[in-house]
From TrEMBL:
A GO biological process held by the record: microtubule-based movement
InterPro entries: AAA_6, DHC, P-loop_NTPase
Organism: Phakopsora pachyrhizi
Protein name from the UniProt record: Hydrolytic ATP binding site of dynein motor region D1-domain-containing protein
GO molecular function: ATP binding; dynein intermediate chain binding; dynein light intermediate chain binding; minus-end-directed microtubule motor activity
Length: 418
């Protein structure tokens, strides 16, 4: 009924419910304990639990609102600190014609101008235009081209958020522009003096440039990604770890970013003792391994640490099953615990036996093999050929919330060891 609620804590006398416990083990006390003898029916108890949960949420929200003024002060201090640093840089340059002065955006208020819309103007480099109130113009192909020209000449990184929100005609033109830039970069790798043509301008590209595109391709109202943009290296974002962020406040952001990218893409930074256990398990099973296969096993370990779902795809007899079995045995040997895996072959039994089914005669819900395994709260590994109807059923449990919702309304939460 409540996805984030794992259990209710009852006092030693078994007379009242005092706390609620989440899946992560955090206990939150009720503002008013629920007396069991006053609520004999289960629906009345659940209603009181829901009321207490709403009170806890209201208390938390009221606490956040009290911190609002302090947060505003902190944000204002951050802005003022940035302005202070800019002013210090401008003081060092005593000429308004120097580049260090011109490349900062400046706002000027002319009190003598009667029209309030034209009284505030923006100055940057040699460009001057009125600020107005709000810009409601369109973002077209030419505007994107001018951005690319500036980025690649300066050698900066461009971050385009929600690129597929553009109209299809504009997105197609932009993708063609990016493709021509990528072809030009390929030519520069062989000839450093090569030039690239962008929106009718022939220019030299700084090799320190970069393009980052973020998008939500599954959302309604988004345009389809052109094929020439699919040549970009794709990366999937995962949920951030709050504890790691708080513990690394004093560390440099660049070092943390490089470490995260390395662990995700390279996936070779595995502890040496784990590698030793993997080689030991392989030797015990009298397996002959190659360098490529031995590198894939630590790769599986790294990906499993990031995501709780993992699909191993490849031709027959390439060592997929041997890889996860060797890794499972190595982890069991490393931590000194017995590890259990269940191999489910969907080709040997029907879908109703693997998952769940409803008996049309008795209207009784029968749990399948997979659901029973989840109920036992143990590790589970499926070794099978992927088919569409298996993927549709598994999609609900492969999501980040790690919840398997059955058609009868029951919810099964996957623990961290699955």
């Amino acid at each position: 009924m409540f996805a984030g609620l794992l259990a209710l804590i009852i006092d030693q006398d078994l007379t009242r419910k005092e706390n609620m416990c989440s899946r992560e083990g955090r206990e939150i006390p009720f503002p008013t304990p629920i007396i069991l003898k006053n609520s004999q029916k289960i629906n009345n108890r659940l209603s009181k639990v829901e009321s207490q949960m709403k009170l806890v949420v209201l208390v938390a929200q009221s606490g956040i609102s009290l911190k609002g003024p302090l947060q505003i002060v902190l944000k204002t201090l951050d802005v003022l600190a940035l302005v202070r640093d800019v002013i210090r840089l401008l003081i060092k340059d005593n000429s308004v014609s120097r580049f260090e002065w011109l490349y900062h955006m400046q706002f000027y208020l002319e009190v003598s101008v009667a029209n309030p819309i034209e009284s505030l103007s923006i100055h940057m480099a040699n460009a001057v235009f009125p600020y107005g109130f709000k810009y409601l113009g369109t973002f077209d192909f030419q505007a994107t081209g001018r951005i690319f020209v500036g980025l690649f000449q300066v050698g900066a990184w461009g971050y385009f958020d929600g690129a597929n929100r553009l109209e299809e005609r504009i997105l197609s033109a932009v993708s063609h522009l990016i493709q021509s830039i990528k072809l030009g970069l390929g030519a520069i790798s062989f000839d450093q003096s090569a030039e690239v043509e962008i929106v009718g301008k022939t220019l030299w590209i700084n090799t320190n440039r970069g393009i980052v595109i973020t998008m939500n391709p599954g959302y309604a109202g988004r345009s389809y990604l052109p094929d020439n943009l699919k040549l970009f290296r794709s990366m999937a974002m995962t949920c951030p770890i709050g504890g790691a962020i708080i513990a690394s406040v004093d560390q440099r952001e660049q070092c943390i970013l490089i470490q995260s990218v390395t662990e995700t893409i390279v996936s070779k930074l595995v502890a040496e003792h784990l590698k030793e256990h993997i080689h030991h398990i392989v030797s015990e099973r009298h397996l002959v391994v190659g360098n490529v296969w031995s590198q894939k096993v630590p790769y599986v370990y790294q990906i499993q640490n990031i995501q709780h779902r993992l699909m191993m795809v490849g031709p027959l007899a390439t060592g997929k099953t041997g890889a996860w079995r060797a890794l499972l045995g190595a982890l069991g040997s490393l931590v000194g615990l017995k590890v259990v895996s269940y191999v489910v072959d969907s080709k040997a039994i029907s879908k109703d036996f693997v998952y769940d089914s409803l008996n049309p005669t008795t209207p009784e819900w029968n749990f399948g093999l997979f659901t029973n395994i989840i109920c036992k709260i143990i590790d589970n590994v499926g070794d099978e050929v992927s088919k569409q109807h298996w993927i549709i059923f598994m999609a609900i449990v492969l999501d980040n919330n790690k919840l398997l919702t059955l058609p009868i309304g029951k919810r099964l939460g996957l623990p961290n060891n699955v």
